[in-house]
Amino acid sequence: MDEFDDLDLLEDVEDLEAQVEAGDHEGYPATTVLVDEHKVIKRAIDILVNAVKSGVQDEKLYLDLARFFSEYADAIHHGKEEKILFKRLKEIAPEHIHDMIEDLENDHVEGRRLVAKIKESISDPEALKNYALAYASMLRNHISKEDDGLFIAMHPYLSKEKEEEMLREFLEVDPPSKRELEMIVERLERRF
Fold first, then answer.
1. How far apart are the first and last CA of the chain?
2. pTM for this structure?
């Protein structure tokens, strides 16, 4: 199939772009889970940025946030993307989707590196601030690449049945600690 021969596919993409701009992921339950997790992650990013910019020196705060980013953002959220979503897309989607995935996987690796640096720098406020702001910037950009890029581009290649199948897989891999990690963010928001 030539890139632009299928007018129905182009109309589908235009419809999806309009839905995503309106925040509508109806019929895409697995995508909705990922977008909802992004919202929690962005709240944690805001706490991190506000704390380092305000000069907060609280080792437990930064350890809690590093734990959240390691366990929730990376192990749980990125785990779903790498082991389920990306794997499935690599099997069915065209090359431009593969290129997007490769870029996102590189972000995951960089995120792991920066979280490790945050943990190492907790006793050095200047280094902590630099690594925290670098991580926050990278992760916000990463989330935007997914919400505004990949999720729009992938939907023409994923049937609603495949989305529902992925949702079941997502729910199966969610550990019991997921809610506890979300509560860390809620607790820190009340505190800061």
1. 53
2. 0.87
